[in-house]
Amino acid sequence: MSARDDRILVIKLGALGDMVQAMGPFQAIRRHHAYAHVALLTTAPFVDFARATGWFDDVWVDARPRGLDLGGWLDLRRRLRGGGFRRIYDLQTSDRSGAYFRLLLPGRRPEWSGIASGCSHPHANPHRDAMHTLERQAEQLAQAGIATVPAPDLGWAEADVGRFGLAAPYVLLVPGGAAHRPAKRWPADRYRTLAKRLLAAGVTPVLIGGSGERPLTALIALGLDGVRDLAGDTGLLDLAVLARGAAAAIGNDTGPMHVAAAAGCPTVVLYSAESDPALCAQRGSDIVILRRDSLADLPVEAVLAALPAAIGVAET
After folding, report:
1. Disulfide-capable partner of 131 in 24, 136, 149, 273 (CB 3.0 to 4.6 Å)?
2. pLDDT at residue 45 tops 90
3. 109 alpha carbon, distance to own chain's centre
4. Over the chain, what is the mean pLDDT?
5. Structural domain total, the chain
6. Which residues contact 176 (CB under 8 A, 6 or more apart)?
7. Binning pLDDT at 50, 70 and 90, where does residue 83 land?
8. pLDDT computed for residue 3 by the predictor
9. What's the distance, CA 121 to chain centroid?
10. pLDDT beyond 80 at 1
11. Is 191 within 8 Å of 298 (Cβ atoms)?
12. 145, 32 Cβ separation under 8 angstroms
């Protein structure tokens, strides 16, 4: 097989924070297989984001067949087997992606890097679940022959954010998060107080979130002239570019904060006992982690004190 005929598949289905933390492995796989055809299997929300990296020759959408969806499973099996892949890197390492490995039977399967029983390049560390995501992925790739994995970096991201009309200085506020895990959220009234302090210092608070978080961001912005509410209006590339130009980003442990950190923005992330920064913390050049068992016990002053001194908010 010539190098140009070599075919590689990477599996990473989500979620947003996990996708950002896979940027280094994506880049490392692309470099290691520089002349191969490298495809990514992911979910619909991340297709444009993945294509924009320039590291993949093709991006496949996983329809995520469930249960008794025999047609969906057979279609996925045909696609995977018909792809002609020599090696598959499973960066999802979940029950679902493990099922995809088994789906390739019977017959000869591609080389497989992951944790599926019987795969050719297993990540054989019994303590992998106690490792931070970045170290865990780097070790998995090292055991598959890829020695160097860079840190997540969104310097490649481009978007025209001029339509938002934002002028510096501004600070991104990310008050949302998984709806089924409300304990990961700092109370809305604290974000509202924080927004007031930013406005008083001449800094524009910019609220970031999904369309489902509009009631939350609207409540925080209510009656506060100068607050910009962009919930539901920003794509992932927009968010990366906005973060690059922000004085800081402040928010709960949720996907957009991984984007901000990887974009090089000074980032303050608020953790409760619901998640462990030792396993999943944002990484970047200027990251502050503030943790309380209950975020209701985290005062606004502690968050203000964590901001870069140049913003000058703590002294107002």
Report:
1. 136
2. yes
3. 30
4. 96
5. 2
6. 185, 209, 210, 213, 216, 217, 231, 252, 254
7. very high
8. 56
9. 25
10. no
11. no
12. yes
Which amino acid is it at 94?
Answer: S
Which residues is 173 bridged to in the sheet? 207, 250
Q: Give the strands of the sheet with 248-252, arranged side by side.
A: 228-229, 204-207, 170-174, 248-252, 267-271, 287-291
Cα 35 from chain centre: 27
CA 48 to the chain's CA centroid: 14
* Tokens of residue 288, six digits: 């502050």
CA 80 to chain CA centroid, Å, is 25
Strand order across the 87-90 sheet: 58-61, 37-42, 7-11, 87-90, 111-114, 121-122
pLDDT (average), residues 266-289: 96
DSSP sequence for 38-97: EEEEE-GGGHHHHHHHS--SEEEEP----TT-HHHHHHHHHHHHHTT-SEEEESS-SHHH
Q: 170 pairs with which residues across the strands?
A: 204
- Mean pLDDT (whole number) for 167-186: 95
In degrees and rounded to multiples of 5, residue 72 shows phi and psi of: -65, -40
Last residue of a domain, one of 94, 112, 142: 142
In a domain, 157, yes or no: no
165 token code pair: 């009309």
| Amino acid (one-letter) located at 108 | R
Average pLDDT over residues 173-202: 96
Q: Is the pLDDT of residue 298 over 60?
A: yes
CA pair distance 7, 292, nearest whole angstrom:
47
Q: Clarify whether residues 106 and 134 are in a common domain.
A: yes
In angstroms and rounded to an integer, the radius of gyration of the C-alpha atoms of the chain is: 21
Shortest CA distance to 55 belongs to which of 40, 41, 75, 74? 40
Whether residue 106 is preceded by a cis peptide bond, meaning omega within 30 degrees of 0, is: yes
- One domain, residues 13 and 136: yes
3-state secondary structure of 99: helix
Enclosing domain of residue 188: 162-311
